[in-house]
């Protein structure tokens, strides 16, 4: 299991569009990806689940990858967050 | 210039653009499914179809509105791919054996509620997206065509073949300038709604009208004369504008009647209350200076809801009505569903003759859980104002005895639970069946008041279906039989020291106002826009003449 924490810089937070991109990214990995904010956890492969976290600019989230390619998955997601959020 | 004649059901002139209402078949009914496997397949096929539609919309929108504008369709497509959303629908189909349309509607409600409860206004607005994708799915499932809703912000003349109660409820009233329907009778819901909103309306203009008009055409609607003029020439337009100005002047004259008593020249004073169908109408009640609410049609709570409204939900609404009216009387009629006002989740059987079927109090007495929920909400709200409860479709002494027993139980339960309730709640019944009128001498001692529902009383007495426009010539609302029944009910009420009102459409028939006053009717309840006109009529009457 690999994790990283990230503080959102995008001014609207994880709204519908980036949430959808995140879901696609998570689904493309071979691991189970979860996002946690303030003790609430969401399955990153589910759009409504990610949106329901209501992640805003300045919020800190913990991203976890668990599975066969977790090493590569966490790297891909870390890059995704840096680039988009 | 094209001219169409119909029946004017609500006075006034409207000049504006036409919008033809496309049939929105969004009424989702619950159907029990035995073959869940093929129902799941049907759902998957509809989902694929909906996703294809969204892909097409995205492609079409891209060159027109750009990436930012088109991405909503992309997001909708991804929403339709959401595992939790789809899993919820599949599980409902499988476990509860319900049809895909209904499972989708229920799931939509849950997800909408989730977004609605979030503390971020952007996320709250996503509830609309959930509704949108769910409607798309339901539409594909039920094989209906896409609905076009007018997108511009101006007020429109809404044209349709006819309007169901649920459709009129769903309409954004602030956008309606006038109603024109091809079919329908003067007692149809379009007509009643138009009157309660004081919107010019012409009904029964025929199919040729609908076939000929296009969205965006200019028309003049004369709700008094029952005339619709499409693409009017300059002269017709000038004439209509003058009438509109005269109307406005007449309305100003009525304004002067605000705050005056409802008293005849010989000193007989009555109450004039207002009929309303939703909390939104309270503004109109107060604006028109009504003395109270003589009929609050609680069924709109049930019609607007996708499942039985909870006790809390009902309590909240009743409390709001009572508080808004301060100490003025508010008479709330218990659920009057059935017949022409069907609600899917009640799961009522189709009836050959719904007007004579399982409706109103008959549903309440056969399904006490529904009745008790409403009574509890009403009694809890009673602490916040001056409440009267009225029961519809009464025909016998035993029904009232049973109702009073439920009321007593609810009062006792609430008192035991420590909930504050008013001990001054008046209980009354509708006199809308010939049976109730004929035995009104037996019913009067049991209740605090009567209220005559003239629409049903007329239809039952004259054996005339009020939804059938062809019967209108036989349905003489001034028929002596109906008037005698009302007179007898008034005598019975007064003999036992009870009061009697009229809350049906006839209360707003000014040619009968003097007759009703002679009978000793104590209260007339009319649509808010008629309150001041009725006051004017009452003040002009002299019962000695």
Taking pLDDT < 50 over at least 5 consecutive residues as the criterion, the unreliable ranges of chain A are none
Estimate percent helicity of chain A. Answer: 25-40%
Biggest interface pair, counts: A-B, 18 and 20 residues
What value does the average pLDDT of chain B take? 87
Structural class of the secondary elements of chain A?
alpha+beta
The side-by-side strand order for the widest beta sheet of chain A comes to 1-4-2-3
Calculate Rg of chain A over CA atoms.
Answer: 11 Å
Characterize the main sheet of chain B. Answer: 8 strands, mixed
How many domains, in number, for the residues of chain B?
Answer: 3
| CATH fold assignment of chain A | Histidine-containing Protein, Chain: A
What structural class should be given to the helix and strand makeup of chain B? alpha/beta
Biggest sheet character of chain A: 4 strands, antiparallel
Number of helices of chain A: 3
Count every beta strand of chain A, where a strand is a DSSP E run of 2 or more residues.
4
What is the level 1 CATH name of chain A? Alpha Beta
């Amino acid at each position: 299991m690999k994790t990283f924490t990230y503080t959102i810089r995008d001014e609207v937070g994880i709204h519908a569009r980036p949430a959808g991109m995140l879901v696609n990214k998570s689904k493309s990995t071979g691991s189970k990806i979860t996002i946690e904010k303030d003790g609430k956890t969401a399955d990153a492969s589910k759009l409504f689940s990610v949106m329901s976290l209501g992640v805003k600019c300045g919020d800190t989230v913990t991203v976890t990858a668990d599975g066969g390619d977790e090493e590569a998955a966490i790297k891909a997601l870390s890059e995704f967050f840096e680039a988009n959020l | 210039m094209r001219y169409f004649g119909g029946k004017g059901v609500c006075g006034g002139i409207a000049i504006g653009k036409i919008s033809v209402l496309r049939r929105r078949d969004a009424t989702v009914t619950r159907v029990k499914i035995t073959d869940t496997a093929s129902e799941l397949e049907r759902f998957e096929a509809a989902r694929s179809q909906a996703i294809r539609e969204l892909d097409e919309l995205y492609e079409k929108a891209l060159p027109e509105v750009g990436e930012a504008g088109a991405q909503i369709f992309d997001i909708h497509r991804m929403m339709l791919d959401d595992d939790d959303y789809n899993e919820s629908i599949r599980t409902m189909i499988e476990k509860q054996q319900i049809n895909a349309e209904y499972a989708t509607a229920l799931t939509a409600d849950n997800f909408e509620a989730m977004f609605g409860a979030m503390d971020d206004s952007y996320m709250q607005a996503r509830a609309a997206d959930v509704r949108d994708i769910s409607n798309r799915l339901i539409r594909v499932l039920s094989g209906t065509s896409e609905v076009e809703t007018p997108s511009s912000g101006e007020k429109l003349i809404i044209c349709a073949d006819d309007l169901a109660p649920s459709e009129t409820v769903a309409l954004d009233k602030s956008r309606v300038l006038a109603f024109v329907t091809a079919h329908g009778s003067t007692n149809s819901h379009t007509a009643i709604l138009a009157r309660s909103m004081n919107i010019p309306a012409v009904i029964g203009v025929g199919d040729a009208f609908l076939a000929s008009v296009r969205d965006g055409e200019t028309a003049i609607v004369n709700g008094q004369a029952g005339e619709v003029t499409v693409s009017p020439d300059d002269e017709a337009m000038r004439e209509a504008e003058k009438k509109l100005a005269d109307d406005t002047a007449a309305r100003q004259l009525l304004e002067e009647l605000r705050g005056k008593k409802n008293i005849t020249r010989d000193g007989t004073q009555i109450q004039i209350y207002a009929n309303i169908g939703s909390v939104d109408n309270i503004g109109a009640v107060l604006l028109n200076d009504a003395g109270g609410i003589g009929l609050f049609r609680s069924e709109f709570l049930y019609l607007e809801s996708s499942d039985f409204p909870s006790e809390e939900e009902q309590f909240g609404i009743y409390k709001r009505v009572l508080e808004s009216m301060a100490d003025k009387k508010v008479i709330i009629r218990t659920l009057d569903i059935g017949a022409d006002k069907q609600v899917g989740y009640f799961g009522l059987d189709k009836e050959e003759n719904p007007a004579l079927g399982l409706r109103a109090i008959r549903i309440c007495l056969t399904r006490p859980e529904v009745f008790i929920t409403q009574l509890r909400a009403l009694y809890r709200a009673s602490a916040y104002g001056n409440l009267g409860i009225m029961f519809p479709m009464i025909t016998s002494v035993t029904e009232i005895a049973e109702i009073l027993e439920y009321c007593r139980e609810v009062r006792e339960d609430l008192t035991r639970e420590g909930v504050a309730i008013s001990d001054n709640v008046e209980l009354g019944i509708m006199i809308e069946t010939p049976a109730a009128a004929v035995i009104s001498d037996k019913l009067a001692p049991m209740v605090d008041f009567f209220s005559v529902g003239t629409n049903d009383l007329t239809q039952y007495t004259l054996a005339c279906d009020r939804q059938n426009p062809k019967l209108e010539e036989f349905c003489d609302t001034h028929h002596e039989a109906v008037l005698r029944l009302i007179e007898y009910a008034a005598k019975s009420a007064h003999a036992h020291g009870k009061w009697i009102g009229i809350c049906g459409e006839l209360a707003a028939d000014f040619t009968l106002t003097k007759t009703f006053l002679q009978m000793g009717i104590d209260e007339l309840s009319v649509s808010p826009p008629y309150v001041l006109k009725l006051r004017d009529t009452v003040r002009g009457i002299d019962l000695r003449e």
